[in-house]
Every structure is written in structure tokens, then in C-alpha cells.
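dumping this here before i forget
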Amino acid sequence: MREAISIAINRDQVIDSAWQGNAEPGITMIPPAILGDSVEIVEAPQYDPDAARQILEDAGWIEGEGGLRERNGRQLNLVLINGFGTAADHGSVPELLQAQLEEIGIGIEIVQTPDTATYGQRLSVGEGDLWLEAGTQNDGNPCFLPDLLFASPVPGGDAESNMYGNAFAPGAKFDAAIKQCRESTSVEDVQKAAAGAMKLLIDDEFVVIPLAGTFRLFGLSNKVLDFVAHPAGVHQRWDSVRLAK
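structure:
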């Protein structure tokens, strides 16, 4: 099911319609530059709705009344929770996903959440099937976000800290990749381990479906020299910037 959803989404349409072109198709769950050359380990999902339909057919989900798929008397309807940080952050993305997934026979109910607290409450009790988030890379460590969200929950640990792990953790193979990422001592080894962990999430288990990497826009006059945007916003450096005389 997750694989079918992943390849049924037309990311270019989402970018052009929802973000007016101010984004690029999602490859990983963090800015690709953070992974260096190891970004090549992760394969970007390829749009293929015909293959998505076949995957569902092979799994026994047959097209039923109104075009929605059915299996054993159950209609294929999923709940999309929109979203983190707030529903407003995602614009028209939920409706675009709804239309695209309906084309392969999956019905989508959109639930709008007004804030992160409401979103987190639903996630903590599993009231939803798909979860729409706008993530941020607020750490220079490539392992930071996959480790935070998808490592297996700690038994007896804090409920909030375990919330994502309880919902989405793919298991021992991912945990081993994250352990390697935590323990590596060179930048290249950390990047390679992080990319391997995200390959498990995106290409193997389809737990994460990257949609788009939205651009941060900077307005600079032609007198500003030597400005370089950093992929992690909190690490943006200004000490090299010069003004032309």
C-alpha cells in the first residue's frame, strides 16, 4: 500500500500548483546537500500510476463502485492528517494528493489540524493513516531528523519522545543504520550511514514519502558579495558576506 501511494504522487504537479515552482522534487527527508555525495544512495520515487494500480490489484484491491478499490467487502479509504506545523503551511497540497490518489482508487479523507498540539494528539493515538508534515533541518547532523522521528521507541520512555517511534519505526535494520550513524567519526561516514538509514525509510519500507524540498528565498541587493545559503537554516553564516564599495 505504501509503495503504491509513493509512486502514485505526481510531485511536479504538487510543486507547480501548490508552491508555484519554488521547490524541487523530494529525494530525501532532509536537504540533499547535507548528505554530500552519499545522497546518491537514496533513490527518488518515480511517478508511475499504472504500476501503482498494478500493485494494488496484486494485493487484492479490486476497483469497485465509484472507482474506489475494495477487498473482502472493505472500501479503500484512508485518512490524511494535515499537518505539521499547521494545516495552513501546506496550502493546497492535501487536495492535490487527494485527487491524485483517487485516480488509482484510494479514497482520501482530509482532516485539518490547527496546530502542532492537535496534530501530536492524533499521532499519539494513531488516529490517521497518512501524515503530512513540513520538516526542517535545524541541525547540521545528517542523522538528526531520521534518528529523532524513526528510531524504535525506548521501553518505558517518555510518551512524547516515543510518539513517532511508536507510529512509524521500521525496526532493527533501521536502528542498526542509525547506531552506525551515531557512532561514526568522519563526516563522510556519518553521511553514508544517514543515507543508508533514509534509503530504508524511503526506498525499502516506504515509511517516508518525500514530496518536495521547498526553497528558502533571500532578497539581496547587487552590492552583496560572497553570500552562500546553508542547507540548514540555523547554521546560516554571515561572516563571509561583503558589501561592494
